[in-house]
Amino acid sequence: MPTSVKIFDTTLRDGTQGEGISLSVEDKIKIARKLDELGVHYIEGGWPGSNSKDIEFFDRVRDMKFTNAKITAFGSTRRKNSNAEDDINLNRLVESGAQVATIFGKSWDFHVHTAIQTSLEENLSMIYDSVRYLKSKGLEVIYDAEHFFDGYKNNAEYALQTIQKAQDAGADWIVLCDTNGGSLPSEISAIVTAVKQHVTTAVGIHAHNDCELGVANSLAAVQAGAGQVQGTINGYGERCGNANLSSIIPNLQLKLKYDVISDEQLRSLTQVSRYISEIANTHMPVNQPYVGNAAFAHKGGIHVSAILKDASTYEHIIPELVGNKQRVLVSELAGQSNVLVKAQELNLDFNNEHQKTKEIIEKIKDLEHQGYQFEGADASLELLLREAFEGLEEIFTLESFKMLVEKTANHAVVSEAIVKVKVHGETIYTAAEGNGPVNALDNALRKALVQYYPDIQQIHLSDYKVRVLDEKDATAGKVRVLMETTDFNNSWNTLGVSSNIIEASWYALVDSLRYALLGRTRVEPANKEQQERLGLVNH
Amino acid sequence: MPTSVKIFDTTLRDGTQGEGISLSVEDKIKIARKLDELGVHYIEGGWPGSNSKDIEFFDRVRDMKFTNAKITAFGSTRRKNSNAEDDINLNRLVESGAQVATIFGKSWDFHVHTAIQTSLEENLSMIYDSVRYLKSKGLEVIYDAEHFFDGYKNNAEYALQTIQKAQDAGADWIVLCDTNGGSLPSEISAIVTAVKQHVTTAVGIHAHNDCELGVANSLAAVQAGAGQVQGTINGYGERCGNANLSSIIPNLQLKLKYDVISDEQLRSLTQVSRYISEIANTHMPVNQPYVGNAAFAHKGGIHVSAILKDASTYEHIIPELVGNKQRVLVSELAGQSNVLVKAQELNLDFNNEHQKTKEIIEKIKDLEHQGYQFEGADASLELLLREAFEGLEEIFTLESFKMLVEKTANHAVVSEAIVKVKVHGETIYTAAEGNGPVNALDNALRKALVQYYPDIQQIHLSDYKVRVLDEKDATAGKVRVLMETTDFNNSWNTLGVSSNIIEASWYALVDSLRYALLGRTRVEPANKEQQERLGLVNH
């Protein structure tokens, strides 16, 4: 029986099959980096045979360094009645430059007849030829036996033949998939045990959550001898999602004592799960096990008085082991560890005894209570901390803004902003158009600043996300805006919260520019001629 | 081994310990009626010893008729070093008028020492006395052994003594609680098996979801001989929630073939779960197993082409068994077969040879190229298809809108919208404020429509997401707005794409209202008096 378990993350491939999940290439690269930090062993980046976005992803990661993870590309076995060597899909896997190829094939006789409509014999050849071809190209090959459990229940002999073929062709892993998510832990346990008696190749499990048993089925497979678990962060995936790695990893490591990732990596689990939720622009359930904001939150009076005596009375693990926090009543302590980490990163003297530290923690708690969430907005957090500990020069302050959007039938919409700000003590009035209201505000504000800081022309808004905060009366109707800004070398994230999307955007925009100006040198305002050249005549 | 399983619902008691869940007495009564229709066997209404709201609940249900469920009141064993007869908490249970009393006591020696701080012997007496007193009052008594599994792991002998005492005192059920949610199915299975060898009283399971194993643990207990499952609809509850009955009931009935509720009642499961989610004012995850909106939703092109051949290729049960339905999502990852399925769902004559079909497919491709993504916006897709195939009555058309947002330093931001639309041929001018620009537009547009369609006042915007489309030059700077709108029974999703967030929101809003008006009957415009009552005097 294995004592360690390898984690195969398919957030970037199967995860994007989930409703409402759509990731740009840039999003995928950010997530891959985070997954690598978390310490997963395989990152499935996409299906290069299915779309050009995934091809671009593999092109871009080809020369990137990953510390822990191998990148794997996904595809299917060759088409029926053809050669593996000529198969476009298989060749895309080779061309992707990924070290590892993961291919799926059919194990359920019903699917062979119904879905791909070929003979059982030809299906076996498709598996054998495909694995062998990829092995001949020097790749590590993971064979995903799609619908293995349904296939085994229907025709065990044939299901076993399919994985035997993958083994004969030299597959490095045989992963048993409960593709429809309909199996129970007792079935998974019995079938994995039977498989382990038939094949010598290392076995993995790929479970789905259709019966709310994705995590349990993954654990049952490991307990029966599987050495690899495939899943997604936060359980993203088609229908009810894939097995949730954010729960599986701590269950394996803390409860079943398998060697999975390092203790330090495990302590980043909450932060990684929340970061990926922000990037994917999903609503993370507060009650998500281990990593949710309420996972260790106590409301009941009896529970609270008991945990004050001893936390283990109502907590199954120490929350810090997964980077989460206990929360009692309305006190919002979440994020404090992030604050600490950030403060250390900035070399601030962040000591719990200092008045400044107490004040900034109070302030952050209050902002979090209002709906701010600094997980995805490092730059806004840095500004807050620098302001509290070092003081920040107040470069500009708002006097007022007006924003007008006008549309008539069959005409393009028009957005205009008027901004009145004090920059270095001087009141400046600017107006600008934009392709949207936030862009108009951005343009108007920049106009006021660019004469002092000409190089802010180079930065641009690269992402913008809005989330309605629907939790409770306190935040009803509020929106959180998350903004990403980029210059040639860096990008940074800021946020704003308000019941008004324009105001929330304004706050995020102001932080974005304040951050951009950190450490930049002010120049003397341009003379009239230069102003004209810069289009600043109307301030 | 039992062949039937009794369902004990604690949505109204343990469920309300969940963060963000707060139910009025009226809410609780509505939910109790729904639970009775669903066919649960016990409804735990609250803790009359802990608050007056729960006392009121029991007063109000006392004379109500329930067809399937018995109402039960919750409380604890008597206080240490006192008499059961004089215990206020126990007497509240008797006075509540509930047929069944559910009391919890300590099984974990650590808790006896730490939380209630008494002797192990006194704790046994507390259990015995309390159960016996309630039995003497003619009540059915369910004894909840709190922290039973943690207690058993720490001191099996003492844990067994505690439930032996409950049995000796005449308890009708002994329910083993995994209060902290930290146990694994393999542990639950072994411990329930051991308990069944020690007691003859019927045994139940009460699991929590802290390891994302609440459902699996409940099933493991039943498979080891438990005849009662306690849980909550949608898994509401403290921290990560209680075991989710919305998944447990179909798993027990459809997968493990236990007799739980009738087939007809099971077909109401989706509707009951969504109804309770509405009453509790929670955001129901789309990917919730069995009952979620995406539980049987298909996105991948390969999956979609297979389910067209046979739905069981990628569905573990027939969705209608739990009152849910198959949905096909249209997305970049899918081919046109997804549109075909949607058209079939709407009974449209969608034949590839028809000119209409070719046109609408071209149109959808074109919209997708612009950044539309219909997978999350069923209602917008339905409107497109209905318009192309059936024609849709043009109820209202935009003449113009103006939207103004104004902010001065230290003052609240103000949003105003002016809308000029033609409704049934009549030009209507309305203006409204809002807590944000989209809300202001929504209010202004609704004002124009509500006199013809008064019941659109009941619908409300329930979610709103914005995404910048940063993929390609063609869509640079564009934003996609996804909007969810809800009335009491349904919710629908619409979208809009534009380089201007306000315009994109407008498109999504217009689709949302067009969809809401499908099949609604126009009423004659209200007279002046009615208009004043409705606040429509300014059109």
TrEMBL record, chains A, B:
InterPro entries (alphabetical): 2-isopropylmalate_synth_dimer (IPR013709), AIPM/Hcit_synth_CS (IPR002034), Aldolase_TIM (IPR013785), Citramal_synthase (IPR005675), LeuA/HCS_post-cat (IPR054691), LeuA_allosteric_dom_sf (IPR036230), PYR_CT (IPR000891)
Catalyses which reaction(s): pyruvate + acetyl-CoA + H2O = (3R)-citramalate + CoA + H(+)
PROSITE patterns: AIPM_HOMOCIT_SYNTH_1, PYR_CT
Every Pyruvate carboxyltransferase domain range: 5-270
Pfam families: HCS_D2, HMGL-like, LeuA_dimer
Record-stated family: Belongs to the alpha-IPM synthase/homocitrate synthase family.
Protein name as catalogued: Citramalate synthase
Organism: Paenibacillus sedimenti
